[in-house]
Write a structure and sequence with these properties.
Layout: H1 3-44, E1 72-82, E2 85-96, E3 101-109, E4 114-121, H2 138-141, H3 172-191, H4 193-197
Antiparallel strand pairs: 1-2, 2-3, 3-4
């Protein structure tokens, strides 16, 4: 076989290899994207028990109004349903901590009770306020079961401020900001309950 023939064979084999690789990548891209989306979704939604809903909440964001709250700002909202009935609303909230923005995801059930909350982003001081980003988070789990009625407004503060909540050790500002953002989200849910649950306009 001549040198030119060898070059042609190599070029053809390379082209076929590239073509097959491209085809395989294209044919599996949708499946890979779907699986990645499911993993991302589960990571975000682990504040809500998987058996509690059967839809894909993140695929259908809610149109939120009046998103600038007293101590925080809402970035997004989602509705979780089971058998077509609303079971919870997820609110993505941002507040200002000690070192920068803290982004939270809160799950609130149809009765206005907090199911769970997790930190999605934060840049607080490591080993102090940075603990707000730990998952699972014992301190944040202490808010599960709370609502605007339990405790009453005055209770939504640190114990050192006359409220009912402990703080993250050495992180007063981070703790205050997080408590205020959670309270804001619960109040927002109460004020917009019908729209958030899809039972009103």
């Amino acid at each position: 076989m001549t040198r030119m023939a060898n070059v042609v064979v190599i070029v053809v084999l390379t082209s076929v290899g590239v073509g097959v690789t491209y085809w395989l990548q294209r044919s599996s891209a949708a499946q890979i994207a779907a699986e990645q989306q499911m993993l991302d979704s589960r990571r975000l939604l682990d504040v809500l028990p998987a058996q509690a809903y059967d839809n894909q909440p993140l695929a259908q964001p809610l149109a939120l109004i009046d998103i600038d709250l007293k101590h925080s700002k809402l970035l997004a909202g989602y509705r979780a349903t089971k058998a077509g009935q609303p079971v919870a609303v997820l609110l993505r909230s941002q507040t200002q901590g000690y070192a920068g923005a803290i982004e939270l995801l809160l799950a609130i059930d149809a009765n206005g009770t907090l199911v769970g909350v997790k930190t999605l982003r934060q840049i607080e001081t490591p080993a102090l306020g940075g603990h707000v980003g730990d998952w699972p988070n014992r301190w944040l789990q202490g808010f599960a079961g709370k609502s605007t009625a339990e405790p009453a407004d005055a209770g939504w503060a640190l114990k050192k401020d006359g409220g009912q909540f402990d703080q993250i050790a050495g992180a007063t500002i981070t703790s205050r900001a997080t408590i205020n953002a959670i309270h804001d989200a619960l109040r927002y849910f109460d004020e917009h309950r019908a729209v958030l649950l899809g039972s009103g306009t």
